[in-house]
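Hi everyone,

Forwarding the result from last night's run.
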Amino acid sequence: MLAAVILTKNEARHIEACIASLQWCDRVVLSDSYSDDGTLELALAAGAEIPQRPFDNFGSQRNAALQAVEADWIFFVDADERATPELAGEVRQAIGEPGKAGWWVPRDNYIAGKLVRYGGYYPDHQLRLLRRGKAHYDPARPVHEVVILDGAEGYLQHPLIHHNYESWSQVHEKQRRYALLEAQRLSEQGIRPLPHKFISQPLREFYRRVVTLRGYRDGLHGLRLHALLAYYYGFLPYVHLARLPTRDASP
């Protein structure tokens, strides 16, 4: 039994196409955080099951689905992702192989209308195909969540199509949320926002994406993207962190 699980909160513009791309799964389940934009009606009409749960963080949402959804394998797909027929066949073959607890899936990322292939955006492997009972998400990572596997892992070849950000305004909107979640994680670990971090972290992130990961090969579109990510990954979390209480401070 293979169940596709989609985490949703007001995803009406994406949900029909996402579910349509997953009809080859035995079940399609929405783990919904009380959408009120028509997502539920569209998903029900498309044949999906819809348990609901208040959102706390991504890791907790996925762990709750792993516990609640009855299936041998769980295939996590975001609402803005699409599975291709080639990926469908590969997934079906993979879950028949013995000994594996999880499979990494590559993604093709489209950002503001363009496919981005450098700066860390390809192959962008995500550990999304999980054997239920052999995987859980690290509760210490509320965003950019990390899977802990009890068993071997494998890598698929065919990518998910990820409509990552439809516009630059979406980049700003989502990254602001992620920056706050990252600051909360750092605060819980007792990390202080040391003054030099406000300069060194964004510079390090920009260099990593543009030079080390060859983000310059995506042209001006890529440079704009990686400059924004340097700000949202390397600078803004420390601004939020300065405003949050910390536990025992790290040296």
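The chain has a mean pLDDT of 93.

Cheers,
N.
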